[in-house]
Write a structure and sequence with these properties.
The structure holds two protein chains of two kinds.
Chain A: H1 2-23, E1 35-43, E2 53-58, E3 64-68, E4 74-80, E5 83-90, E6 97-103, E7 108-110, E8 113-115, E9 123-124, H2 145-148, H3 152-155, H4 159-192, E10 199-201, E11 204-207, H5 211-236, H6 249-279, H7 291-310, H8 316-320
Parallel strand pairs in A: 1-7, 1-8
Antiparallel strand pairs in A: 1-4, 2-3, 2-5, 5-6, 10-11
Chain B: H1 2-31, E1 36-51, E2 54-60, E3 64-70, E4 73-81, H2 90-99, E5 107-115, E6 123-132, E7 135-149, E8 152-159, E9 172-173, E10 176-177, E11 184-192
Antiparallel strand pairs in B: 1-2, 1-3, 1-11, 3-4, 4-5, 5-6, 6-7, 7-8, 8-11, 9-10
The chains are: A alpha+beta, B alpha+beta.
Chain lengths: 321, 193
């Protein structure tokens, strides 16, 4: 008897639940409909965001359907019941976005999202000194970058610009290294210069330089020129960053190139002329006689341009001693 | 008569009940610190990069911030565009922008959190969460000096940031790698609203 009563109660409960389920429209329908919602999730530059979580919540029932974006940023929510949905997209490093969509009984609706990279907590690094984070104050809900007054343009990531900056730095790093390396043969060339020079008095040749000295000087000059022009190429062809107005030491560094640049072209030409005159048994004369002075000016301008870009040099290790 | 009596009795019981129920709420409101809102009116944020032969200081005056104090806690949000930090040399600034992935992650965002009871202290120990270069780092109990300047409050301190906190691969200068520490000196003026 008791068992019968319990059985009646259970059957009654099941019946009531079934009745309630039937009365509430759309319960369980979010996953059982035939409609679909699809689209893409991209950033401001049009780059696909993979792995973004897309959640559609039915306005009528609150039932949700979820999907993740693929490598192309595409998502597809299937089995939706017709009706109004709130679709929310979240992706790490981007501000979440919400949009409303009305899903019709048949066919596929499209809803695309463009997310703004805020600041990215791409991999929240918990440091050893991480504080415990108590619950935020009630008013803290109003704290957002938008509420501070930053524009979406200011907060938007720019992957093309980042790629340009990376390329620029890559080229300028080699520019800096080669530029410093160039100093060695340049200084050596200045030192060997007098040894490759005809010595004389009152137009008379007293001592001819040895062929070895001339060859060494010429070889050092050629090495300097090769390194110099490679260095210059890297600076000239490094990508320019739009909207940048140059200021500071870099302007002095670049201005000095107008001295050492022509000097580096002129020095070997004058050197070759001087060499030719020496081969003819003459002491270098005319414009060729300026070879040494031009080379010296070039080297000084070159050294100054290195100091300019490095200025102010702080000799911290000296102070410590 | 009986009805009148029981009616009066009921009203009395209800009044006592309401009074008793309201007492803790009144007491709580009395102890609860007032809700306050703050806005950043002026700021200078300066990072310091050092190498054996060079010292670089990059400054931004473009930070914006707001803060709320409620329920015994204060939460502040301060943000500045990464490219607003300038050293006085375009080349260095562009290198900084590249090294910190400033185009991919254009904002440096700081969330500050501390107990409201510290609000009037000369030193405020603040828990900081800094989002920068696509990374998030926490700094616990960073001391900031607080000075009342009329209706405004001046806050000064240094955030002990390092390159490794934000996975920044350290650039080199004249062939020498910069130090890991990149302390950020903060000088801000806040006004309550």
């Amino acid at each position: 008897m008791r068992s019968n009563t319990a059985g009646s109660v259970v059957r009654g409960g099941v019946f009531v639940c079934a009745l309630l389920a039937a009365m509430v429209p759309g319960v369980g329908a979010a996953q059982s409909g035939s409609a679909a919602l699809a689209g893409t999730v991209k950033d401001g530059s049009g780059k696909a965001i993979a792995g973004a979580a897309v959640t559609a919540a039915s306005a009528a029932t609150g039932q949700t359907a979820k999907a993740k974006t693929n490598a192309e940023g595409g998502y597809r929510l299937t089995g939706l019941a017709p009706g109004s949905y709130t679709v929310r997209v979240t992706a790490e490093g981007y501000a979440s976005k919400e949009a409303s969509a009305t899903v019709r009984a048949s066919g596929k609706q499209t809803l695309n999202f463009s997310l703004t990279a805020v600041t990215a907590a791409a991999s929240g690094q918990e440091l050893p000194n991480a504080p415990s984070a108590p619950a935020p104050a009630s008013g803290a809900g109003n704290l957002s970058l938008e509420s501070l007054g930053f524009t979406p343009q200011q907060m938007q990531s720019n992957s093309k610009l980042q790629a340009r900056l990376n390329r620029r730095t890559e080229m300028l790093k080699i520019h800096q290294q080669l530029g410093l390396i160039t100093v060695a043969p340049m200084v050596a060339d200045l030192i060997t210069g007098p040894m490759a020079k005809v010595k004389g008095k009152n137009g008379q040749i007293l001592q001819q330089p040895t062929q070895a000295n001339i060859d060494l000087h010429a070889a050092l000059g050629s090495t300097t020129a090769a390194l110099y022009f490679t260095t210059a190429y890297l600076a000239i062809f490094a990508p320019k960053i739009p909207g940048t107005h140059k200021h500071g030491a870099i302007r002095v560094h670049e201005a000095l190139a107008f001295i050492h640049g022509p000097g580096m072209i002129l020095t070997p030409i004058l050197g070759a002329m001087a060499f030719q005159q020496e081969q003819n048994g003459e002491k270098p004369h005319g414009i060729a006689a300026a070879h040494g002075a031009v080379a010296m000016t070039t080297a000084i301008a070159y050294g100054a341009s290195i100091i300019a870009v490095a200025w102010p040099i702080h000799l911290k290790f000296w102070r410590k001693k | 008569m009986k009805t009148k009596l029981s009616g009066t009795f009921l009203i009395a019981v209800l009044a006592v009940f309401l009074f008793t129920a309201a007492l803790p709420a009144v007491a709580q409101t009395g102890n609860k610190p007032a809700e306050l809102q703050w806005v950043l009116v002026q700021s200078t944020l300066t990072y310091h990069v050092s190498s054996p032969v060079h010292q670089v200081y990059g400054t931004s005056r473009a930070a914006k911030g707001k803060g709320y104090c409620s329920g015994g806690w204060c939460n502040f949000l301060i943000a500045a565009p990464v490219k607003s930090f300038t050293t006085g040399d375009t080349n260095r600034d562009l290198h900084m922008l590249e090294a910190t992935r400033g185009a991919d992650f254009p904002m440096v965002v700081v969330q500050a959190h501390f107990r409201q009871s510290q609000l009037n202290s000369a030193t405020i120990d603040v828990d900081l969460e800094v989002q920068f270069g696509g990374q998030k780092a926490h700094y616990a109990q960073v001391p900031f000096e607080r000075t009342q300047k009329g209706s405004a409050v001046e806050i000064k301190g240094t955030v002990p940031a390092t390159c490794s906190d934000f996975k920044i691969s350290r650039p080199s200068f004249l062939g020498m790698t910069i130090a890991n520490a990149i302390p950020v000196h903060v000088d801000m003026t806040w006004r309550s609203m």
